[in-house]
# Entry
Amino acid sequence: MSNIFPKSANKLPLQIIIYLVVFASLATAGVTYYMTPKYTRVGYAPVQPVPFSHNLHAGQLGLDCRYCHSNVDKSAHSNVPTAQTCMNCHNQIKPTSPLLAPVRESYENPAKPVPWVWIHQTPDYAYFNHSAHVNRGVSCVECHGRIDQMDVVKHAQPLSMGFCLDCHRNPELHVREPADVFNLGSKTIAQKSGADAGMKFVHDWNIKPPQSCSGCHR
Amino acid sequence: MKRKFHHPESTERELSGPKYWRSLDELADTPGFRAQLEREFPQGAAELDNGDRRHFLKLMAASFALGGIGLAGCRRPEQNILPFGKSVEGIIPGLPQYYATAMPLRKAAIPLLAETHQGRPTKLEGNPTYEGHGGASSLLAQASVLDLYDPDRATAHTKAGAVIDAKAVEDLLANINRTYAATRGTGLAFLAEESSSPTRARLVARLRTAFPNAIWAEYEPATDEADPAGARAAFGRDVKPIYRFAAAKRIVSLDADFLSAEAGSLYYARSFSNGRRVEKAADSMNRLYVAESGLTLTGSMADHRLRLGNSQVLALAAALGAKVMNNPPFPVSLAEGLNFKNQEKWIAECAADLQEHRGESLVIAGAHQPAAVHAIAYAINAALGNIGKTVEFLAVPASTAVSISNLAGSIKSGAVKTLVVLGGNPAYNAPADLDWAALQGSVGEVVRFGYYVDETSLVKPAATTQIAAAHYLESWGDARTVEGLVVPIQPMIQPLFGGLTENEVLARIVGEANADSYTLVSTTVAGLAGRPAEQVMTKFLHDGILGGSAYPTASVTFNAQGVGALFASAAKAPALSESNLEVRFVRDYKVDDGRFANNGWLQECPEPITKISWDNVIQISPALAKKLGIEPKGSALQVARKEENEFSIGKENARIFELKVGGKSISGPVHIQPGLSDYTVIVPLGYGRTVKHLRIASGAGFSAAPLRTTAAMHFATGATLTDTGKRQLLANVQEHWSMEGRDIVRESNFEKTATSNGNSYQENPAFVNTIGMESHSPPIYGAEGGKLSMGEKATDTPRGQSLYSHPNFDGVHQWGMSIDMNTCIGCNACVVACQAENNIPIVGRDQVARGREMHWIRIDRYYSSGTIDAAAFGGEGNKELPEDPQVSLQPMTCQHCETAPCETVCPVNATVHDDEGLNTMAYNRCIGTRYCANNCPYKVRRFNFFDFNQRQLDSLYMSQLGPKGMPELVKMVKNPEVTVRMRGVMEKCTYCVQRIQNGKIQYKVKMAKAGDHAKTAVPDGTIKTACQQTCPVDAIVFGNILDKESRVSKAKAREQDYAVLGYLNVRPRTTYSAKLRNPNPRMPDYAAQPLSRTEYDKKNHPAGHEAHPGAHGGAGESAAQPSHEAKKEEAHK
# Structure
């Protein structure tokens, strides 16, 4: 009986193993890169119903974040302003602009809220609290990036669990003076006066960011 | 390059997020919503049974294919943020708001604070401004928020079955007003429920003047206040008693379940516990004597409990009265026919104890007892000088309502043309001899105001107008607490289905100019306060109480002549036997008289004594069971004691018996209940609803209404029980009744007596250390452990005898809990409070029967009889069911062990400790191996065997093939601060971690704003767990054990505080304060130590091996117990 397999088939097992290893490595690398928030979320910049420019309002006009996001220091949620907040100015400025039509409509008719697209969305099982951060030296810019320079808001940071923990493990590198929290161009204490100053601030303020599950998951 | 996503336009539905009450009306009319409503619990979902295997595989293949195609699912779904158009004052998205309101129930409302999230009420707490409840609330109040979102409630006004709009209802009511204005009300009749609302009283008074000929009748199937005739006869005026339990050292209850069934039971439970609580040996403790027919929560707290038929309570009252008083104002012959063991001595010693505590004793009779019993109780209280001290009488307005029998007479005579039924459900629960359904059917026009389309609505739909009632959380209203304080009922939300309030309906009929609910209430309140509404209402609504509005205390003197007439007609106690049984109809702990029968939280909550959920049962005594030939099998090899009932694979396999009284009969499952009077049969009301679309209520239990007659509403004699040969499986959550002589609940007698032998609490307050494994094993925390404080033990984690060393806890707080079993009355309010707070799903009867209930906290109920044989099987003492058991109740929930056995076995680190000592569950990590539940010594972990939140309860086993999704209405009750868990994850008590985190954050924010940044330790009392907050008796204390001044640290420092199963070295953060009993050494049934201790001794120190308290050194846990150490040192020398 002649051989069914040619001699070259002797190498086949080794080849299969090599291919499998290569494939597995590629798959792992692919998943690690493409299926993490770093890739899927960062840069996400959906078209909003009203082309509101943070660059213009917060950057050039210098409005404080809290003029619109008025409850960010009180509540877990940073509220998106009501149409009434927009109309405080826009009943004088550009009162007839077609771009502001959804805002005017919402102001007149409570059944027609402006459908802002939610960008910075944490999963339902993660309970992030804005007030706990902005009152304790964590600036908006740490998670949201230079919103004041964005015409269209985009997702600047991955907001993954690893991202959160980076800061919770080393808060001294990320805290700012209370006066700088809403100043997105400001420097952290560590950048201004060195890591030791950051450490001192963390110590003086008794900042102990939770690293246990219960800190965020309930 | 910037990526731009163009999303499709949001649909109408997506945009209608935060305005629930506006869209739900619309939503309710869409076909999709209707279909969903109908699908929620369809009867007999048998799709899978009908399909063959091939069909099933095809479906599976299709769903896999769909799964492959649906790669779009990888993207996170697009969601919108929908801010208000105009800002709403006070609303901060993400922060809850609290409003004062009250839950009305008969004549005693419970003041509440409602927590709302963006306009949705999700949780109710007691209003702390009202001192009588101190911020606590009851089981029913906790569950009532679910009724608001009941998909089965009446969703529209209908006339002859057709939907009519609000305008048509207005016209109809105005028409009634016009029609009867001419006849001054002749032909118009009302049947209402009892109410404490001052506004309703005002409108009824208005009705009396506008329509003097109209009939106003009130009916309550379950009574919770004493017959006013008793007080009227005794004191010559309309007064009602209010009891001051805190001031009473000796309490005698004559069949009164004042801890759960009487009006104001919450108020009473709280003050009773204040007289019961013992923190140190020098404290005093009240003593409770209870004579009762069934085993109630009050009876389970008794120090001396006498089993006695209802019909013999009058005789006991007379016998006791004759001993206490020299010239009793009643014939002594009333006491004839009384017959129980050691009768003379029992009564004499009880009376002597009362006489030794003149002015600080209290006799209370059950609301269902006839006026004669109440008159005797008042006489005894008067003779003992208790009036004005432990019992006060409040002047109350006399009721002008006629009874349902009078109304029935008028209907029969044809005098009623229009019948307005305001609430209630007479067609279901009116006395059977009235034949209410036929009577109601004979009336030409029936206007039915009700929350559900129920039996009464369906009597004769063609002639009936159904007006949908608003829930109290949707209504403006007012009510009075038990002592008469006026409290507001505020709406939290617009009526979801356009329901009206009772006051609105009544006001339109009497022709009130402005029938708006708020105006009606503010007018009443302004009238009561004597000031204009705008000056009163703001404070009234803010405080939730109208100060100074309580009923005035009346100074009363007992009038011996007045009561004579009551005794003339008093019946002699009949001799009871198995052919002349006595039936007692009791208000159910959970569904009351049936009004809460469609509430899934309540139905699933186990009955506190029988531990059965979803059904009612005919309770019979073990003695009667024997006579009827029911012999529970039990005594399986694993179990040393006889079972109280038969269980097959965890399900109670009950026999169905037919119960016959006076020619009428019902049949239902029989449950053998230790502690019942031998020939009394207990039948809870409120079950056996026949309306199919009430999906929770229908199919639960049987109705006792056919047996009730006007003459015997609360108990009847002459009943018989016969076996039907059928069986029914019941969902009983606790199979076994005995602790088997273990030290789970540690108990002691309170007082030092001649026979207490050093075992009483007063002699040895640290007695808990002499019981159990720890008293023999080496000290858990090592020899030094006794010197460490609670907080140091938590942060230093001394290795002790442990094989391992443990990492220290370094959080700012260390959380701990202490549960006082001495005051716990087992009311189950904590169980439902936890369910409401933590989004715990309902699993249904079938799953409960399989042991898959999801409650994070349960209350274990143990009986002890003192008879136990150390020999495990077949010992004589193990063969009998207890007749006179002592009851021990123990709330059991996650103990947050510092060295938690669950954590070491979790393969994915889903359950781990946090730095503040919480045993946390990360749901999104859990893969559902259930190893943790296996390894938990307390059995407090709960597994989501199904997606209980997303799937219909009767199609759980269809898994992915069944319909999915939570009804819109049910979504609204969920607490947004807590994850809604999915199938396949483990869950358990978290110490309300959401409250802890939010409490900490809010405190930090507050301090940061005040410039005090370094302060992060939350002050004691800021954070309360849901169970603690609702506990009527303050049995649960939670807080930071690092803070030596915190309430929990003090509670844990009590000498009677111990860890359950502490010898396992799991170091639980939840500890228990031992239960104390305070029996009278002169009583014939005095036991020198609690029966559970007797069992413990018999089991652990069998005959010939004398109890040797000295040899039990204590585990070195307590500095007060150094004997072990001392002996060791001696040995070293």
